[in-house]
Amino acid sequence: xxxxxxxxxxxxxxxxxxxxxxxxxxxxxxxxxxxxxxxxxxxxxxxxxxxxxxxxxxxxxxxxxxxxxxxxxxxxxxxxxxxxxxxxxxxxxxxxxxxxxxxxxxxxxxxxxxxxxxxxxxxxxxxxxxxxxxxxxxxxxxxxxxxxxxxxxxxxxxxxxxxxxxxxxxxxxxxxxxxxxxxxxxxxxxxxxxxxxxxxxxxxxxxxxxxxxxxxxxxxxxxxxxxxxxxxxxxxxxxxxxxxxxxxxxxxxxxxxxxxxxxxxxxxxxxxxxxxxxxxxxxxxxxxxxxxxxxxxxxxxxxxxxxxxxxxxxxxxxxxxxxxxxxxxxxxxxxxxxxxxxxxxxxxxxxxxxxxxxxxxxxxxxxxxxxxxxxxxxxxxxxxxxxxxxxxxxxxxxxxxxxxxxxxxxxxxxxxxxxxxxxxxxxxxxxxxxxxxxxxxxxxxxxxxxxxxxxxxxxxxxxxxxxxxxxxxxxxxxxxxxxxxxxxxxxxxxxxxxxxxxxxxxxxxxxxxxxxxxxxxxxxxxxxxxxxxxxxxxxxxxxxxxxxxxxxxxxxxxxxxxxxxxxxxxxxxxxxxxxxxxxxxxxxxxxxxxxxxxxxxxxxxxxxxxxxxxxxxxxxxxxxxxxxxxxxxxxxxxxxxxxxxxxxxxxxxxxxxxxxxxxxxxxxxxxxxxxxxxxxxxxxxxxxxxxxxxxxxxxxxxxxxxxxxxxxxxxxxxxxxxxxxxxxxxxxxxxxxxxxxxxxxxxxxxxxxxxxxxxxxxxxxxxxxxxxxxxxxxxxxxxxxxxxxxxxxxxxxxxxxxxxxxxxxxxxxxxxxxxxxxxxxxxx
Amino acid sequence: xxxxxxxxxxxxxxxxxxxxxxxxxxxxxxxxxxxxxxxxxxxxxxxxxxxxxxxxxxxxxxxxxxxxxxxxxxxxxxxxxxxxxxxxxxxxxxxxxxxxxxxxxxxxxxxxxxxxxxxxxxxxxxxxxxxxxxxxxxxxxxxxxxxxxxxxxxxxxxxxxxxxxxxxxxxxxxxxxxxxxxxxxxxxxxxxxxxxxxxxxxxxxxxxxxxxxxxxxxxxxxxxxxxxxxxxxxxxxxxxx
Lengths: 828, 241
Ligand SMILES: Nc1ncnc2c1ncn2[C@@H]1O[C@H](COP(=O)(O)OP(=O)(O)OP(=O)(O)O)[C@@H](O)[C@H]1O
Ligand SMILES: [Mg+2]
Description:
The structure holds 2 protein chains of 2 kinds.
Chain A: H1 2-14, H2 17-52, E1 59-63, H3 71-79, E2 83-96, E3 99-108, E4 118-121, E5 129-131, E6 139-142, H4 144-150, E7 157-160, E8 163-173, E9 187-191, H5 195-198, E10 207-214, H6 217-227, E11 235-239, H7 244-282, H8 284-292, H9 297-338, H10 352-373, H11 378-383, H12 390-412, H13 415-443, H14 452-462, H15 464-498, E12 506-511, H16 516-525, E13 534-544, E14 547-548, H17 549-553, H18 560-563, E15 566-570, E16 579-583, E17 594-597, H19 598-604, E18 611-616, E19 619-630, E20 642-644, E21 656-661, H20 670-677, E22 682-685, H21 687-725, H22 727-739, H23 744-782, H24 790-793, H25 795-817, H26 820-827
Parallel strand pairs in A: 3-9, 6-8, 15-20, 17-19
Antiparallel strand pairs in A: 1-10, 1-11, 2-3, 2-7, 2-10, 4-5, 4-8, 6-9, 7-8, 12-21, 12-22, 13-14, 13-15, 13-18, 13-21, 16-19, 17-20, 18-19
Helix pairs in contact in A: 2-7, 2-9, 2-10, 2-21, 7-10, 7-12, 7-15, 7-21, 9-10, 9-21, 10-12, 12-13, 13-15, 13-23, 14-23, 15-21, 15-23, 21-25, 22-25, 22-26, 23-25
Chain B: E1 16-26, E2 31-42, E3 47-52, H1 58-65, E4 73-78, E5 81-82, H2 88-98, E6 99-102, H3 114-124, H4 130-140, H5 156-168, E7 174-178, H6 186-202, E8 206-210, H7 214-219, E9 222-227, E10 230-232, H8 236-240
Parallel strand pairs in B: 3-8, 3-9, 6-7, 7-8
Antiparallel strand pairs in B: 1-2, 1-4, 4-5, 9-10
Helix pairs in contact in B: 3-4, 3-5, 4-5
The structure holds adenosine-5'-triphosphate (ATP) and magnesium ion.
Residues 58-59, 104, 178 of chain B line the site of magnesium ion (MG).
C-alpha cells in the first residue's frame, strides 16, 4: 500500500517537466559514464590481448639465473584456470654439414605459443605457412641464414650437443621474436623435451627459463598477486605493458580512456546538477504550500529525500538499461573491426562511478536549496526571488566543485588529471564571470530595441542572471568536449607520424662493410630503397670510472643491459625522434665522448662526464659521457643505447651495418632471392608486429572516436538541458512579446542572435580553457608537445554559436505556432 | 509613431467594428461555441464596459477585439484595419503601435523587475530612454518606490498597476482591460479607474474593459452584457437601474 502510494507519487512527479528533466539527466549521466567505463575496460582487455602476442602469452615469468621455478607454482597457475607453457633459451654451438656455428636456441613446450602464431617454410622458396605450435620432438626449425651458413638443405640433420635433430622447416617469424637486435646469433627452435638429451645445459650455463601464462585477466592478476611475494631478484613477472615496443602507445590509449571517462563524469555531474538545481528552485512554491498545509521542516526534508532517492533509483535503472545494450553493441563493433570474436567482458566495477556520479550530484545539487527552505516562513518563500543569497550561492558553488571533482578523483585517482581539469574549469569560470560580467554590464547602456541586434543585446542584459549561468555551463561543456577533441587529434596525429603507412617493416642486420652498396642496390632495383644505414659494433659495458660496472652500481641491481653485449654505433647527426635531455650532442669534428640513452643512464645512475669503458672483442674503449638522449623504442627504427661520434671511440673496430626498409606484403618473395644472394645477412621481419600495432591503433582510434562521439552527444544534451531550464520563462516572455506587438520574425532573429552571442562567447572562452587544459595534460599525461590548434579554436566557437542559437530557436518553437491568446491561456 | 494609420481611418469611422463574430474551440469530442453572432461598433474616444458572468466569454471577446486571436467566423475591424484578415505579423505591428492590453491575470514576467516589465513594450518599439518613460508611468500608478521589485514581491493590486502602466506605455489609441480593478480594494480601485478615465478623457484613448465593478461600469459611456456568448446592449434606462 505504501509502495503503491510511492509509485503513484512518482507517476505524478513524472508529469512535472522539471522532474522529467532531472530523470533524463540522471539516465544520461549513468548511461554515458557506465558505457564509457565498461567500454574502456573492455578495450583495455582487448588491447592487452592483442598485444599479448608479443609475449606469446598474457604474462611471462622470466628466470635468468638458470634454475627452473618450483613445479608448485605452475600447479597453482593451473588451479586458477590459467594455461601455461615453457621456453628455455640458451646459446650454443651447433654442428651441421661439417661446419660449426654459434646459435641462439629456443626450446619450446607443446603449448607454445599461448598467444599469436609462427610462420615457417617447409620447402625452400616455398609458400609461407602459419602454424600455432613449435616443432615436434626430434625436429628443429632454423633461421634461413643458418641453413646457408651451414650449407644445409631442409631434411638434413643438425647436431645440438649430443642430440641429432632433423631440420624440418625454416623459421621465418615467431610471435615473441620481438625486436631485439641482441639475438644476432641465428635462431634454432626445438622442442623442450629434447633439451635434456643434448646435455648442453650444465650447472652454471647461461640459460633463461621463460614461463608463459594465459587466461582471463582476473585470474592472471590474482595469480600475479600470489606470485609476487615469492619472486627472487632474478625473476621477472612481465606483462606486455612492461615491454618497450608497445608500452607507450598502450599507455597513452589507456590515458585517453581515463580522460574520456573523467570528462564523462564531469559532464554527467554538470547535467544532473543543472537539472536538479532547476528542480529544487521550481519546488519553492510547493514547499511553501506544504508549509501552509502544516508540514514540518523535518517532514519536508524526509519527503524530498525520499523523492530524490526514488528518482535516483529510477534514473540509475533507466541509465543502466541504456548503457548495457549500448556497451554490447560497441563491443561487438570492436569484434567486427578486429575480424575475430571479442571475448565480452562485463566489469561490474566499471559501473560504480556512474552510480556514484548520479547519486552524489543529485543530492548535492537538489537537496541544499530545498533544505534551506525548511526554516524559512512560507510567506517569505513565496515573496522572495528564487535566486538565493550570495553567500549561499558561494557555498553551493564550492560544494559543487568539491562534489564534482571528488567524483572525478574517485574515477581517475590521478592527481595530475584532476588538477589540470579543476584548474581549467576554475580558470574558465573566473574568466567567464569577469569578462561576461563586464560585457553584460556594458550592455546596460543599450536600451531599447527596434532591430533584432539591439533587442538581442537588451535581451542578454534582461536575462543577465540566466545568461551568465548558462554561459558558465556552455563554456564548461564546450571546454570538456574541446579538450577531448584536441587530445584525440594530437594522439591520432602522433600515431600516424610514429607509424606511417609505409613504415619500415624489415630489418637487415649483420651487413658486412663491403656488402653495403650491393645490398642497397639490390633493394633499390626492386623499388624498396633502404632507410639510413647504421654501423653497429658489439661490445659490453665493463667499467664505470675505472671500477667494474656491476660493483660501481651495486651488485644487487639486475640490469639486463649489463649482462649482454650492447649495440654500439656512431653517428654524425641525432636521429629525428631522439631528444637530448642533458648535455650536448657532438659538435662536428669532435671525436671523443659517448651519448647514452636516458633511461639506462638513470638506472645506472650516470652523470655527465662519467667515464664508460666498453670491451669490444679484445679491445677496450673508454669515453666520457657527453649527453643523455631519449629514444623512441616504439618507433620501429634502429635504436641504440650508446652512440659515439664518427671517428670516435669505435674507430677502427670491426663493425657491421644495420638498416631497415619497407617491403609490401605481396613482395615478400623477394626475400628468397635476397637470402640466396646475401646468405650471411639476417633479415628481421617485423611486418607482423607493425600490422599488429596498426591494428591496435585502429582499435584505439575507434574507441577514441566512439568516446568522443558519446561525450559530444552528452554535451549536446547538457546544453539542451540548460536551455530548457529557462524554457518556461522564455516561452512566457515570447508569448508576452507577441501580445505586445513583437513580430514573429523579429522575435526569432533576436532570440537566435541573443543565444548566438551567448554560445559564441562561451565557445571562445571554452575552447581557450580547453587549450589550457590540454597544455596541462599534454606534458604530464601524453608526453606530447603543445601548440595552438587553430583547426579547433576557430570552428568550435562558431559551431557553438550556431548550436546554441538553434537551441534558442527550438525553445521558441511553441511560441510561434499558436495565437497569443491561446499561448497565454496555456501558460497560466 | 502612427506610421501605421490607415488613410481611410478618419474620425468618422468607428474605432472598432465587429460583424457576425463567432468563436469556437475544438474539444476532445465536439466543439465548444464560446461566442456567437456578435455585432458591435465602438467609436473613437468611447469608453465601454463589458459585463457578464464568469465563463460567459468576456476574455475571449476582448482577445479577439485586440487581435490576439482570430475568430472562427466574422470580422473585426480595428482603426480601419480588418484585423481578422491580417497576417499575424501585421496584427503584431498594429498591436505594437495602437493597442494596449491589461490581462486578467496580469501576465507580468516573474524574472523581471517592475521597471523591466514596463520597459518591455518600449524596448520592443525601439524607443530611446525606455527606462525614463517606464519610471514616469510607474510613478503615476503609485509604484515609484517599487521599481526594482519583482512581481513575486508585489501584492496583487500592485502587480495589476504594473500591468496597467505597461499597457499605457506606448500610448495606445485603444486600451483593452480585463477586470482592471478586480483585485483592488475600493480606494485603489477608485484610483485605477480614475487613471483609466483620465486617459480616456485627456488623450482620447478608446477604452474597452471587462469589469464586475458596477461603479466602474457606470462610469463608462456604454455598458454591454454578454451571456452565453451573446452580446446585448441594454437601453439607457435599463443600464442605469
Ligand atoms: N482555448 C480554449 N479551449 C477550451 N475552452 C476554452 C478556451 N478558451 C476559452 N474557453 C472556455 O470558454 C469559456 C469562456 O472563457 P472566457 O475566458 O472568455 O470567460 P470569461 O467570461 O472571461 O470568464 P471570467 O469572468 O471567469 O474570466 C470558458 O468556459 C472557457 O473555459
Ligand atoms: Mg475572463
